[in-house]
Amino acid sequence: MSADNIAGGEARIRARFDALKREGRSGLVTYLMAGDPDYETSLALLKGLPGAGADIIEWGLPFTDPMADGPSIQAAGLRALAGGQTLAKTIQQVRAFREGDVTTPIILMGYYNPIYSYGVDRFLADARAAGIDGLIIVDLPPEEDDELCKPALAAGLSFIRLATPTTDDQRLPKVLTNTSGFVYYVSITGITGAGSAQATDIDAAVARLKSHTDLPVAVGFGIKTAAQAGDVARSADAAVVGSALVARVAGGLDDAGKPKAGLVDGVLGAVAELAGGVRKARG
Amino acid sequence: MSKLNTYRSGPDEHGHFGIYGGRYVAETLMPLILELEGAYRAAKADPAFQAEMDHFLKHYVGRPNPLYYAERMTKHLGGAKIYFKREELNHTGAHKINNCLGQMLLARRMGKTRIIAETGAGQHGVATATVCARFNLPCTVYMGAVDVERQKPNVFRMRLLGASVTPVTSGAATLKDAMNEALRDWVTNVADTFYIIGTAAGPHPYPELVRDFQSVIGNEIKSQIMEAEGRQPDLLIACVGGGSNAIGMFHPFLDDQNVEIVGVEAAGEGLDKRHAASIAGGRPGVLHGNRTYLLQDGDGQIEEAHSISAGLDYPGIGPEHAWLADTKRVEYAPITDQEALDAFKLCSELEGIIPALESSHAIAELLKRAPKMGKDQIVVVNISGRGDKDIFTVAKALGVEI
Question: pLDDT tens-digit profile of B217-226?
Fold first, then answer.
């Protein structure tokens, strides 16, 4: 096993949050859809994210039927699929990314069926070898932990769970069991890209989660601006931005759906702005 | 697989039928699904709930509906004695209302004040809008934009009944996308909203509770055929999309080993072309909260289904059917659009009953099997809905302008 692999998986996520703690700041987690709008453009985005200020990368796995996602991410997934993106290509992009970056954690985020179809054991081996560190699988609640969560943990990958406003104190321990890496607090009941929560609600929710777990808490859903990201970053260990960035990708396409010049720079510029908001939050 | 002692004990406590079923939903929905399960267990154990169901099934839905001896069809085919279970005579013209009524009474017990539903052809949407009018709750029905266009009469019916119909343009803009959109609504409006799922699919406990509400079909057949023939039937046939009319008919008979059972899938233009036969042409996967047979490509992306019958036009099937197929207790057979159309015409002409295109798939299978059976044998076919809604589709297929 190479040195990279030893530092990968859950260890790479922990190392990143430890570093953020030493720097005394919150982190920026960015979500983009793999293969949107095409393989090469999205690989260029992936490679550019750490330099633009992304501390952790959520790499979206496209699926035809994303039942918890709003219009922006639905459309991104269909663009990626139309461009020929597959799970194998999504893993391949991470392998290419790792040739130049061994410290930025990558979390694969998506739905279960493409992974189930690929085969759980084969997927975990390929994902780990490529340098994927954790998984967020939206439609696998703790009730279905035998499917992928437990095998993923055994393979050294983090399994990151979503906690929501409907996850009450009675249910929270169940959600936190077998969760590793960090906890992703979804600040609203709703789909991705919908309205954002009040900052005070978020502070209270983060405090509630922190009373149940020592894991870092990332907060997302509805964060669109650097100021909103900064608000979240005051109390949360990381702020997650997805739909707003995916919408920037969509905005950089011409009428035929092809990337216009400057798409990559435009999206990475938006990431840099968000990173500025996060870095100033506790300043 | 060897025969089991019982085929009626599922699902297990986690909502599984063998490897099928389960609860594959976003965390936001998990507490709701657990709450629903608890409420359903309590309702099931409460005689007052059953009494309320029985009252409305009798006086509002019009149950029991007849088990009708199809004499001319029997003579025409020259084999087994044929009975039709007349679900098309229910209020709103199909079996869908049995389930909608049950879920509505459950929603009221749970104190929910807003109802959502998905619909393909619009039959489930109409049945949901109907019970929402009767029980005075606001109703939003999600319907693929493509289906809104091809099922205009049902869209108008729903709006007459006071429901709001929201066309869904995401994805392929058909039934599966309508279900995605209903789930998105539910994730957003968790506190006050009850989601009336239209078929025996979705996350546990939906496949179980929809089956239970539809089992009135099979239970009535059991007593009606005893009265008519003094014995149980040899063969049951029902069409299967999601499979709620079929599981409701089959479930009470699953442990009667002498009763042969056939579910009919929509083979569309043929299994080598566009179709909706997820058991014959799909493989296990996870969608809409459950594991079941799905039409999907090699990368686990869901494929579009096709059937002339909008009610069978779904790329999956209820998880209990998936399990019954694997255990071989139920045989699943494909019927094409053309075979269904031929059966539609024949049944209309011979029996004076215009069956739904969905039910016509079951009749088409009957046409293949009944002539090979003995005159002393008995077949029951579920006429799950009436075909008035389909006359435009059929006219178009026959090249007739109306």
Answer: 999 999 999 9
B-chain residue closest to A139, CA distance? B25
CB within 8 Å of B51: residues ≥ 6 apart: none
Note whether A177 and A163 are within 8 A (CB): no
Mean pLDDT of A71-77: 94
Instruction: Pick the residue from chain B with its C-alpha nearest to A145.
Output: B24
- Tens of pLDDT, residue by residue over A33-48, are 999 999 999 999 999 9
- Interface check B301 vs A, CB under 8 A: yes
Mean pLDDT throughout A177-181? 94
CA nearest to A109, candidates A233, A241, A264, A249: A241
> What phi, psi does A162 have (nearest 5°)?
-90, 135
- C-alpha span between A98 and B372 (Å, rounded): 65
Q: Which amino acid is at B8?
A: R
Cβ-based contacts under 8 A for chains A and B: 123
Catalytic residue flag (residue A121): no
Decide if B27 and A144 are in contact by the 8 Å CB cutoff: no
ipTM, interface predicted TM-score of the complex: 0.95
Q: For chain A, which residues make up each domain, given as ranges?
A: 3-277
The pLDDT value given to residue B45:
97
Give tens-digit pLDDT for A185-233.
988 888 887 776 676 788 899 999 999 999 999 999 889 999 999 999 9
Q: Which helix (H) or strand (E) holds A115?
A: helix A112-118
Is the minimum CB–CB distance between A71 and chain B shorter than 8 Å?
A: yes
What's the confidence (pLDDT) of residue A192?
Answer: 81
What residue ranges define each of the domains in chain B, with the CATH number in brackets? 24-56+96-210 (3.40.50.1100), 63-94+215-398 (3.40.50.1100)
CATH 3.40.50.150 assigned to domain A3-277? The reply is no
